């Protein structure tokens, strides 16, 4: 889940030792302190570190079967936008992308295992999709109404999404005119599982919103920077769509956590399963070597001056790093040794 960072001098260490609040990674969520405080007090956190981050396995299942991602396009989506996102999902287990690659990034997820020692699947494919272009549940969704949207997609009379509790992930993507509970102030996306009482099945799902109209400075950072942070310039997005390029890192975050903690009883840190700190939360806002606090770390630039850190099949993307529990730090394929 995306957490609610209190951007003070907290580091992973102090947070995990002193509180159960999920306060780890960095996104410029609006906070009570003002901009200059945030920049200068932001912890100069490294790419993780520490034996004190106790990410633990809680014995629940992880996604060891081939993973199939089913996007639900809620609201108004351009073809070009869908393409950027589809190609990202198709890049996760693509072979032959140039280093550093999206598939290299997924290797960190594959390090996680279940009770039997089975690793998370190397295979992530794009499955059947569903359009919900007439906003079946309105333009303002709650956490519960999101489950009703998923219910509509799997129970639809025409071309329902298949119900696949073994490796299916349901990815609800909302267009830039849809507000979702806690969007922008606290979250840019989250994952959970559906309730049988609402959907009829227990299915792992995530929601990620296009923040372009509501809060690109928060959820599409660093392609946009919020007004309350003076003096930082946004970087150019790799696919020319600030909202969608910003969604990619959030989608990556949620898919990584869905794979390692699909029913919220597998891999997480912290004592509280209601607010687990998961493998992407630990590295939120870190995109390269030296990242931490409000610094993204070293990223790459293409010949048009756009910023990215991984290569996909045909495109480039900027996605956050993930926690490697074997070595106890955040890592990504673009790390400099
Ligand atoms: C920002 O924070 C500083 C120090 O805490 C304070 O003196 C200043 O008034 C604040 N500025 C605004 C605009 O809130
Ligand atoms: C899983 O994916 C691999 C590689 O794409 C494929 O060879 C295999 O047949 C798939 N297994 C199932 C059960 O679909
Ligand atoms: C499976 O997980 C173990 C333990 O983290 C790791 O050593 C191994 O390299 C992983 N296998 C793959 C294919 O990633």
Task: Outline the fold blueprint.
Elements: H1 12-18, H2 35-41, E1 55-57, E2 67-74, H3 79-91, H4 102-110, E3 124-126, E4 130-132, E5 140-141, H5 143-155, E6 168-174, E7 179-180, E8 189-193, H6 196-199, E9 204-209, H7 216-219, H8 242-260, E10 267-269, E11 300-301, E12 307-308, E13 310-311, E14 316-317, E15 322-324, E16 329-331
Helix pairs in contact: 3-8
One 2-acetamido-2-deoxy-beta-D-glucopyranose binds next to helix 2.
Subcellular location: Secreted, Extracellular space, Apoplast
Protein name: Protein EXORDIUM-like 3
Signal peptide: 1-25
Describe this structure in words.
There is one protein chain. The chain is built from eight helices and 16 strands. By secondary structure, the chain is an alpha/beta fold. The chain has one domain (3-331). Strands 2, 3, 4, 6, 8 and 9 form a six-stranded mixed β-sheet that branches. It has a two-stranded antiparallel sheet with strand order 1-10. It has a two-stranded parallel ribbon with strand order 5-7. The protein binds 2-acetamido-2-deoxy-beta-D-glucopyranose (3 copies).
Distance between the first and last residues' Cα: 29 Å
Strand fraction equals 15-25%
Helix count, per DSSP?
Answer: 8
- SSE arrangement, N to C: HHEEHHEEEHEEEHEHHEEEEEEE
| Estimated helix fraction | 10-25%
The structure class reads: alpha/beta
Sequence stretches where pLDDT stays below 50 over 5 or more residues: 4-23, 34-48
Ligand identities: 2-acetamido-2-deoxy-beta-D-glucopyranose
Main beta-sheet annotation:
6 strands, mixed
- Counting structural domains, the number is 1
Approximate shape: globular
Number of strands: 16
Would you tell me the overall average pLDDT? Answer: 88
- Give the C-alpha Rg: 18 Å
